[in-house]
Amino acid sequence: MIRIYRDGELRDEELLKRNAPTYDVAGVVAEILADVEQNGDAAVLKYTEKFDRARLETMLVTEEEIAQAMAETEPEFLDTLRLAERNIREYHEKQRRQSWSFTRPGGAVLGMKVLPIEKAGLYVPAGTAPYPSTVMMDAVPAKIAGCREIVMCTPCRPDGKVNAAILAAAKIAGVTRIYKAGGAQAIAAMAFGTESIPRVDKIVGPGNAFVAEAKRQVYGKVSIDTIAGPSEVLVVADRTANPRHVAADMLAQAEHDVLSCCVLVTDSAALAEAVQKEIETQLDELERVAIARPSIDDNGKIIIAADLRRAMQIANAVAPEHLEIFVDNPFDYLDDVKNAGSVFLGKNCPEPLGDYLGGTNHTLPTTGTARFGSPLGVDDFMKQIQYTYYPAEAFKKVAPEIARFAYKEGLTGHAKSALIRLEEEETT
Fold it and tell me: Burial, 423: exposed, middle or buried (Cβ in 10 Å; 0-12, 13-18, 19+)?
């Protein structure tokens, strides 16, 4: 049963504590990465057979397979995917940034070129549940950014087929190539390149502990979005909240993973007790109770705060991936939010709205990294190149200042690079 705490019973580090795997993830992943880097497709196919129990001859998903997946997917769900794509595109198109420049007096020109990365790599998990929503959240911003190639890796079933909904989402979202590869071996393939799978410039998307560790280890050879941890939600609610709704929102996260973290912070002891009871009632009705039960028992918390302002302070200390402000006047508290991945305002805005259809991204900073991290967006698929131009007269004016700075740092070569141009002016 989820525990109830009074404010002050938990230190900040206990608020942030999540259970973590105790097995040697790093060592196993390092071996897989080295194998794929050295042996390419053969290694990826070997691990696909070992972990996914699928013996493949080729990893590339064909156009025929995609067309079959579209035909197999219910027309109503295809319409839902298209609605999601429109909403996600509408939101993310507002994130576009343009190249810019300005000219100083004297003719110096400075500017920034904003360009898309060439190849984006998307990882889409399909372990305990398929995630066509992740396809949308990762691919649509990459397409808006203008990436030339959007490469996706996702595990297949033992029969060698990829979940039809995932393929349909990829088709609608604009993915250019899809490969049947999962786990750390897929991350390695996209980071190093194999005979079949191209090396990409950046890998984005969530996954299990092995995928997260693989992304950590390949960073530097390729860019990544973040090291994603288990999903989490924190609900701030007052006495007017419906305990059935609050419990349902918490369990929506608990069913993701046994390591998911669900927290309620409220100023009402009566609500705390009602939600505690309601969670127990709804758990019995949940299909994924085997996952949700340890998530709630091991990582769930209900905290009674003095008031809602204090509740917001606790929320900022936790820095949750998802933050629900479950009150009648949620905008009164929006300015109090300092650390959160995505905020859901009001009683009619459950977190699953953001998972699927709202338009905001659901690839978010987890495990407290919302203190400095941001949601996935168009900027994740862009790079910036700065440039400078100085005409002769403009440079002549600043050359002594450059030299003065260089001498202060003991870099006489830097100083000479600036002053030599003045010497040449004096000899002509």
Answer: exposed
